[in-house]
Each structure stands twice: as structure tokens, then as C-alpha cells.
Amino acid sequence: MRLHSLELSAFGPYRGHESVDFDALGEDGLFLLHGDTGAGKTTVLDAIAFALYGRVPGARDEVKRLRCDTADAGTPTTVALELTVQGHRLRIERSPEYQRPKKRGDGYTTQQARASLSWLDSVPEGQSAEGHTRIDEVARTVHQLLGMSAEQFFQVVLLPQGEFARFLRADTSERAALLEKLFGTRRFADAEQWFVQRRRESLRAVEEHDGVLRDLVARVSQVSGTDAAEYESEQDWLEDVEKAALRQREEAQVGHERARRERDTAEALLAERRDLAGKVRRVRHANAELADLAAQRDTHDGWRVERDGAQRAAPVVAAQHTLRRVEQEHERAQADFETASARCVGVDTDAPVDTLRAAAGRDREQAGALAQLVAVASQQDTDRATLADLTARIADGDTQVRTLDEQAERLPERITETRRALDEAQQAQTRLGPASDKVDELTALRQVARELPAADAAHEQASESARAAIDEHQSARDRVADLRERRLAGMAAELAAGLSEGAPCPVCGSQAHPAPGEPVDEPVGPEDEEEARAVEQRAHARRDESARAVAEAERTCTRLRERLSDRSADDLDEALGTATHERDTLRSAAEKVPELTKKLGEHESESESVAKQRSELAAALASARTEHDSLATAVTERDKQLDEARGEHPSVAAHRAHRLDLAERVDRLVTARLARDDTQRRVSEQRDAVGQAASEAGFEGVDAALAAERDAERVAELTDALTDAEQRAATARATLGDAELFGVDPDQEISLDGVEEAAATARTTAENATAAARSAEQRHTTVEQLAERLRKAWAEAEPVRAAHAELAALADVVNGRGQNSRKISLQSYVLAARLEEVAVAATHRLQRMSDGRYSFVHSDAAGARGTRGGLGLDVLDDYSGHARPTKTLSGGESFLASLSLALGLADVVAADTGGALLDTLFIDEGFGTLDADTLDLVMDTLDELRAGGRVVGLVSHVTEMRQRISSQLHVRKSRAGSSLTILT
Fold first, then answer.
1. Domain locations in the chain?
2. Per-residue pLDDT tens for 878-930?
3. Rounded CA gap, 454 and 442, in Å?
4. Per-residue exposure over 320-336, b if at least 16 CB sit within 10 Å of its own CB, e if not
5. pTM of the entire structure?
6. DSSP one-letter code for 517
7. Where is this region: Disordered (predicted)?
8. What are phi and psi of 148, to 5 degrees?
């Protein structure tokens, strides 16, 4: 992958349109992105990452704020990147999602994210020549071409030095997280989980079999009453249980047969005695029944006479009931006739029926003639009400017309006054913006005037601190020089302290030491000089920091004074007061614009409405007057016709109702008279029928027949009593005539006490023996069935246990336990192999940059307190010959190790992904911790990278880096923002 150009607009700190020509920058294979802190160096890398993957590295991606806050509203936020990947040149353009002002109205709207990819030369196989415009299609195509995810790209191409310093010192879990993300070893973790899951499933199967076995053993123990724990083997225990169950069943069957024979003998004797006792009781009961019936013979004869009389009187009683009903009907008919006669005043009630019916017909004819005029009268009432409503409407309309005329006269003056006030408010609204800007400007200047004294004080304090830092640094330098002179002066004594008799001198090689140096007062050792030098370096750093603070404070004071332009705080307060009063006055007037606009619209709408209402009301009044005159004429003519039809009644409807009521009364009179005459005839006929029924039943008269009457319940009671007596007598005679009772003495006494007790005892013994035999049989069957199931379960569980043991051992090995002596899981093993490759690749560069002193050492030992091993990383110090933790490295040494590790990891990841060849590499910050010699070694390593065909871009604010690259290469500047310089 090689970058050609980058264009960005309103992106990050860049408010306008900027471009970077990577072809020009990369001619010599090395360039520097240099600028002050916050100048936007890392933003160039963010733009490259966003163009490719639609996101930026690290925590900045979580904020989702890529648009420049100070960019013009009309400038869109876009990033365009041209690059060549796998021999194909393409251009990618992206825009993030951000908020922009609405084109119409106030507020903001969301500008959706966009992406496009277009081919600039040849099109890869399987790709569309038109490119892609969907975000997901662009992302998929970039991933296919580069062969790596966004996380891998950020670690391989945009080397973040700070993150690799953390990776260098990280513990096992943090280091594993990054390696898993870069090398995609999730499938190995899934394999570990697969084994764990399979082991759980296998264990559940074993537990299920064990549960079945426990249940079966428990059930056999419960049935047999023996405990398997008392036996050495469950198989032996099961055999004993089966033998005992068989023996118990056979013994119970023998006892059952014996008890059954004894029970049958006792029950046969008991049955014989009970039969004889029953015959004696039957003979005694039959004799007692016949004697009792003979004593009640007279009573039974009286019951027969009473029942027969009641049966003969039944027809007479029925005829008498019919007579009473007919007499009641006649009484009701007579009352109805008298009531109807009383209502027919002035009518001859004894007149023939035909005469009365003819009079009723004449009344109905007159009522029919009046029916048509009833509707006319109803319409007359409706028209009178309508006429009154029209009169009221005409009067109300005249009043409304006068009111509308008055409103129309007042509206023109009100419209003119409102329009004049609206013009004044709109002028104030136009002047409000400049007035508000002036207030804001004066407010800001007044704040600047208040900040200036504090800035001057801070400048003075910074100057004093700088002078103190200069003095401190100078003193530290003097002490270093003094200690170096004193150490040199005592160097002979220091060497003499290491001499021994017969040993050669390390300087001249002589074994004789005639005049060794004498120790000096207060000798100085190398550690003293080193400590003084460290103090001097810290003082120098504080001196530089103080100088920068003084320069910054001076720039702040200068900037504040330039903004004030020699204006005092009092002048600004006075001007601000005047401007504020003017702004508030204009704002108060401008706030009335909506109200006045609405009010003017209301007045104009009201004027149009009044004119429209006046026209519509006039037309309605004319129509109402015409309708009123026509309706008044019709009402007058209709009154004459209705007066004739009304007669002496209050209305035509009342006259018609009177005629109908007369006809109805006469009809009721005729009906009542006919009903009275009919019931009178029926009463006479029924009286004759009652007398005839009494004679036919054999009674002397009607009264005698009615005296013999009995209700149905009494008759049924008498019949049942007589029938019962006859049945008792027949039953008793039949019993005494039975052949099996012949010769039975009713006075004989039969005792059953001893026989019943013996039979009950034998029956209980037999029932217990039956229950015992059945229980033994069932227990034997249950034991046989459970034994068969238990042996089958044993046979099924054995291979399941064996398979689980094998799977559990394999799962433990895969997950770093059991027979895994190194205690490394499968994923950790793969990551350890990757880390070992990274350590080898990084060691090559670390030895080059550390002048052969340091190299990486990979360790697969287990971590502390059982943490997984395989991801240990130490450094081997060639000076001491011992490996030590990476956390013991100094700042500069950590940068060298981190950079070496980042480059080594980039090489391994690029080779592992099998994607595009990475011709461009960026290294972000970290150079400020290096001394001059170490920086030379780093630059030599970078030269090796670009000598291999790569283009290396450095991101740093270190001035020495700028000078070093400028002195080695020719300078070619291009601007990318106000404070960012790109050097090649």
C-alpha cells in the first residue's frame, strides 16, 4: 500500500481545505510531521484512518466529533485519500455524520455520513467499474484489498508509540487482549470453550447415568429393606436381594393355601346355622301378620264404603264446579253492561242492537271527515311559529347590519395605526444585530482589560522563576564541574585502592607498586558524579520549562494589549453601558414585530370579514321578508276553514276525538248486553245438568252427593291402605305354604355366637395370608424388574464414564490444566508463538538501536497466582548478562524498546494477514526522550526501513528531529494548516 495524496476539509482543527502530496513527500522515503502541541499532527493520521475505515484510532473515536467547530457553516466536512493497493489506484472520499444549520428556518439538522470509492486505473476482478457509494460496500472492499481490520491497521501502519509503551509494560491479560485483536485468535478461544462445553455436556451425561443408578439402587433397597453399603460389591448385594425375594414368595404361597382351607370350612358351618335361623324367623313373622289382619277387619270394611261413595259422587261434583264458574261469568257480564250503560248518557240502552250499531257508524263517518282537517290544523300551528321566527330574525338582522356598518367605519384608522407601528419595530429589528455585536465586542474587551493585570503579574512571576531556575542550573553545572575535577584529582588513589601485592597494575602492568597514590580528603566516586549530573539535567529541564513559561506569559500580555488598543477599563465600561442601553431599547421594540404583524393581519382579515358578513346578511334579510309576507297570507285564509270544522270544540282534533269516543261507547254497550244474555242462558242449562248427574249416581239429591265428596288424596290413601292389607295377607299365606318351611317349629331357638366368631377368625387369617402372598409376589416381581434395569444401567454407564474421562483430560490440556505441564491454554499457546515471532523480529531492531546492548526475551512461564503463562516479555541486558523486566527501562530505553516492538509487530502482522504490501509507515511521537547518540541509532534504523522501499512518516514536535532531517535531506515545505509543517 502506498499513499499518494490526502485532502481534508473542515476536519479536526483544520477549518478550511488542506491537501498533502505524499508522492512529493516520499521521494526520499522519509518525512516529518512537525508542529507545536495541538497543531494537528495526529489529525493527519486520523484523516488517513477515517478515509480507509470510517473511524479514528484510540479514545478519539469514542467522542464522534470529527468536524471542525470553527469551520464556516457552508463548508462541508470531507476527507479524500488517493492510494495504490495491490497494483490498483483508487480514490476514497468520506464524510462523517455531523450537525449543520438548517437551510430554512432556525436550528440544526443532521448531515448523514457518506462514503464513495472510485477506481483511477485498472479495476480488480469481481469489482464494479463504477466503484461504490454505499458505506458497507466501501468498507468491505477496503478490507479485502488491505487484508486487515481497522485495529490491525492502526497498529501496523500508524504506530502509536504511547500504546506500545503500555504494551511493553502490560501484564499478561492486557498483552493478551491486544494480541488477540491483532492476530484474530478468537477461534482458538472458541475451541477452548468448545472443549469446556463438551466436557460439561459429557459430565451431565455421566451425572444423569449416576442419578439413574442411585435411584435404582435406592428403589431396590427400599423394596428389599437391605442397604447396599453393607456389601463390598453392589452386584453381590443384588444377587442376595433376588434370592431373598424368591424365598419369601414361596413361603407366603404355602401359608396362603392353608389359611384358605380353614376359612372355607368355618364359613360353610356358619352358613348352615344362619339358614335354619332364617326359616324360624319367617314362620313366626307370617303367623303374626295373619293375626293382626284379623283384628282390623271392621276398619277395613269402613274404608271400602267411604272410597266407593267418593268415586260415585265425582261426576256430580264436576258438574257443580262448572255451574259455579258459569254463574261467576254471568255476574261479570251484568256488571260490564251496567258500566257501559252508565257511560252512554242520552242513549236508549234497551233499543235494538242494529239501531245502536247504526248510530255508532254515523259517528265514525263524521270523525273520518274531520281527519283531513286535523293535518291542516297542525300545519297552521307550524306556520304561525315560523311566522313569529321570521319576524324575530328580520328584527335581529336589522340590528346586525347597523353594527357591521359601525365596525366598517372604524377599521381603516386602526389598520393605518398598526402598520405604522410595525414599520418602526422592523427598523429596530434591523438595527438590533449590529448593536448586539457591539455589546458582545465591548464585553469581551472589558474581560480582557480585567485579565491584563493578572497576566502582567503572571509574567513577572514567571520571569522571577526563570531567573531562579537559571541560577539553580548554573549552580548544578558548577557542582558537576567541581565533582569531575575532584574525582580526577583522586583517580590515582581510587586505582591504588584496587591494587594488591603480586597483582599487575591495570595501567602499566607492573607487579611492583613502589609509590601508590594516597587517598584525598572527601573522595568523589562515579556514583556522586552521576547523581550530580542527574541533578544538573533536571535543573536544565526546569530552566527550559521556565523560559517557555516566560515566553508564553509575554505572548499573552502582548496579545491582550493588542486587543485593548490603549483603551482603559473605565472607557470600556462607559461605552458598554451606552451600547447596552441602545441594544435593550432596540430589542424591546424588535420583540413587538410578531405581535404587530399578527395584529395587522387580524385587522385586515376583520375588514374583509365585515364586508362579507354585510353582503350575506342583506341577502338573507331580503329572502326572509319575502317568505314572511307569503306565509302571513296563507295563514289568514286557512283560519276561516278551521273555524267551521271546530264547531263548539276547542280544536278540530278535539271534535274528531269526541265523535270516535261516542262510537266506541256504543260498541261496548252492544258487546256487554250480548254477553249478559248469553251467560244467563248457560246458568239455567247447567243447573239442570247437576240434578240429572246426582240421580244417575244413585244419590237422593244433590246435597247427598256433595256430602260424599272426598279429595283425590283421601281416595288414594284409602285405596293404598286396602291394597296393602290384602298384599300382607297373601304374603303370609304364601310363606306358610312354602315346602321348605314344612315341619319348622316357630318356637325353636338357634344360637350363632360361637360359629360366627370362629368364621371371623378364619376369615381374618386368610385375608392376612392373601395379602402377605400378594405382597411377596409383587416384591419378587419388582425386585426382578429393578435388577434387570440396574444391570442394564451399569452396562450403559461404563462407556459413558470412560468417554468423559478421556474428554475431560483433553479439555484440561487444551485449557492449560491437568497433564499440561506448562499450564498454557491453546489460545495462549498460539499467542505465545506469535509473541515469540514478534520478539525475534523486534530484537533485530532493538539491538541495532541500542548498540547491541538489549534484546527481547520471550518467556512461557506461568504468571503469578495462577495467571496464564506464555506471554511473558523481558529484556536481556548484555552489560550484565541478566534478563530483567521491561518496567525497569528508562524513558529513552522504553521508547527504543517500544519502537522496536511496534516495528516487529507490524512485520509479523503484515506477514500473517497475507494482505497488501505496506509501503507506507507512520510513527507517532516519543522522540523527545532520546539523547543525541540514541537518536542517531534510531535514524539509522529508519534509514534501513526506507532503504527497503518503505516511506516512513515521523510525527514529532522535537526541534532536534526537524534539524536532523533537515540537515540530512533537502527541504521541501508544504503548508497544511497555520501551525503544522511537513518536512521532507
1. 353-498+522-594
2. 887 788 887 777 766 777 777 777 777 777 776 765 544 556 777 765 565 56
3. 19
4. beebeebeeebeebeeb
5. 0.39
6. P
7. 511-532, 571-630
8. -150, 155
